[in-house]
Amino acid sequence: MDAAADGRAARDFLATLGVGDLCGGTATEVTRSHGLVVTLDGFPARPLGTVGPLDVSWRPGVPAAVRAGQRITAEVIAVEPGEERVRLSMAATENPELWAFLKARRPGEILSGTVASLQRFGVFVALDEGPAHPVFPGVGFITIPQLSWHRVEEASDVVSTGQRVSCAFLQFDTWNGEARLSLRATRPDPFLAFADGLTVGQSLRGRVTRSLPAGVLVRIADGVEGLIRQARAVRPGEEIAVVVAGIDRERRRLVLSRHETAPDLP
């Protein structure tokens, strides 16, 4: 079979698979850094399946025990026809109750629980409903940006261990077997409320908060910042006069210019 025909055959086979399907196959390659490469039942020509290191197993010692030539059963977590690859999770088959709970969640659904652990990269939440996580302190996880509409440096600025929270469900993180949550989504967005009263050309005053490669950010209201592009001779902490040059409500972006110059629209 030539390369073009082989590629078509692989894509046709992958088209029969869907997220959540169970697949059997044989581990043809095992590496510590990349996990498993798997030849799937139904397509013996070459390996199409991959199992990442975190998706092999959450049981102590199990990943190291998998050997080339071993038969495995895993759940499809992503089909990538363009890459001629399917991502699989053996951990999903070890924790069917957890996977079933997470797959049943819908975006925007409100989940309640207790803050179980604060980390520099986010917050673990032990949910009131559903099974416990076999590895992490909680099935729910909130990244730092999803804690608040305001800029947050540390999770402890917003929540504390043991605090009760209600969050909106964003997505099922199949890499870690957890529910990605948003605390800020349950609260009014200060940007949209403020933007409703703005017009292009309006004059405001604000305080420079930080410098970026594209310009400087200026806080013009609590939880609302705008960008001045290519700003010169301004420093963080300085209060300046600005003009509203553009309002993008969908992307929550506000473009400003210095008061003494004509606005530059994006």
Q: Care to describe what's here?
A:
- This protein is 15% helix and 41% strand.
- Strands 1-2-3-5-4 form a 5-stranded mixed barrel. Strands 6-7-8-10-9 form a 5-stranded mixed barrel. Strands 11-12-13-15-14 form a 5-stranded mixed beta barrel.
- The chain has helices spanning 3-14, 53-56, 62-65, 90-94, 96-103, 190-195, and strands at 22-31, 35-40, 49-51, 71-80, 85-89, 110-119, 122-127, 140-143, 164-173, 178-182, 203-212, 215-221, 224-229, 239-248, 253-258.
- The model is unreliable at 261-266 (pLDDT under 50).
- The protein has 3 domains: 3-94, OB fold (Dihydrolipoamide Acetyltransferase, E2P), CATH 2.40.50.140; 97-186, Beta Barrel (OB fold (Dihydrolipoamide Acetyltransferase, E2P)); 190-258, Nucleic acid-binding proteins (OB fold (Dihydrolipoamide Acetyltransferase, E2P), Beta Barrel), CATH 2.40.50.
- The protein is mostly beta strands and 266 residues long.
- The protein is elongated.
Question: What order do the helices and strands come in, and which of them pair?
Answer:
Blueprint: H1 3-14, E1 22-31, E2 35-40, E3 49-51, H2 53-56, H3 62-65, E4 71-80, E5 85-89, H4 90-94, H5 96-103, E6 110-119, E7 122-127, E8 140-143, E9 164-173, E10 178-182, H6 190-195, E11 203-212, E12 215-221, E13 224-229, E14 239-248, E15 253-258
Parallel strand pairs: 3-5, 8-10, 13-15
Antiparallel strand pairs: 1-2, 1-4, 2-3, 4-5, 6-7, 6-9, 7-8, 9-10, 11-12, 11-14, 12-13, 14-15
